[in-house]
Design brief:
This protein is of the alpha/beta class. The protein is built from 4 helices and 11 strands, in the order ββαββββαββαββαβ.
């Protein structure tokens, strides 16, 4: 039976290393590992399992290194092998595993400079046509269904100079204090990630207007 370690959600990792493990964190993990049968065969698996608010959620567990999958990323330092599944590598890149700054808190802390896209994963979308076509497909398939839960929506106003997209928000998003942050953190990121040829996304929303029906 393996122990599961608690984690919370930056530092630049050396080349070839996904996750930096501080000396204090390594000592804590090795101390837990010593209580296990065949301790020397165990490594620490670190995996992103979901999203909670603006942060990722994690699972940390001791598992046999021999059971690592072919696409797992392995790095050994100080007698501890850290295993990161391929699906978590890009989202954990540059993270640091450490102990909490408050000793009484216990467990381990993951300080991750990466944040999940509030509008979801854009990697699986297949878009086609012109930039305007692709943006509209993205709005229809992903962005507006997410905004609909807040009574809002986004529309494509125009495409300028073949690489600049102008987007306007409405409904519950118009007049919402969070709508500008939603556009910057979510919509702009979603468009530029899903459509690499777009270099800039402009906000045409009149944020001082609107009755803000959802959040009032």
């Amino acid at each position: 039976m393996t122990d599961t370690l608690s984690a919370e959600a930056a530092t630049e990792a050396p080349a070839g290393q996904v996750l930096i493990v501080t000396d204090a964190a390594r000592e804590a993990v090795l101390a837990i590992r010593e209580r296990e049968d065949d301790a020397e065969t165990l490594g620490l698996r670190v995996e992103i399992t979901g999203i909670a608010g603006i942060d990722y959620t994690y699972d940390l567990a001791l598992e046999p290194v021999a059971d690592a999958s072919a696409d797992d990323h392995l790095h050994t330092s100080g007698g501890l092998t850290v295993m990161v599944p391929d699906a978590s590598v890009s989202r954990l890149a540059g993270s640091t595993l450490d102990v909490p700054s408050t000793a009484a808190q216990g467990g381990l802390v993951i300080r991750n400079p990466n944040r999940p896209n509030p509008l979801g994963d854009m990697d699986r979308l297949e878009l086609s046509g012109s930039i305007a076509d692709k943006v509209q497909q993205l709005l229809d398939i992903s962005i507006n269904p997410a905004l609909a839960s807040h009574g809002g929506y986004a529309t494509l106003e125009e495409v300028r100079q073949d690489d600049t997209v102008v987007v306007k928000m409405g409904g519950g998003c118009q007049g919402c204090a969070m709508s500008q942050a939603t556009l910057s953190d979510g919509i702009k990121r979603a468009i530029t990630e899903a459509i690499p040829e777009v270099v800039e996304v402009l906000d045409a929303t009149d944020h001082d207007a609107g009755a803000n029906p959802y959040f009032s």
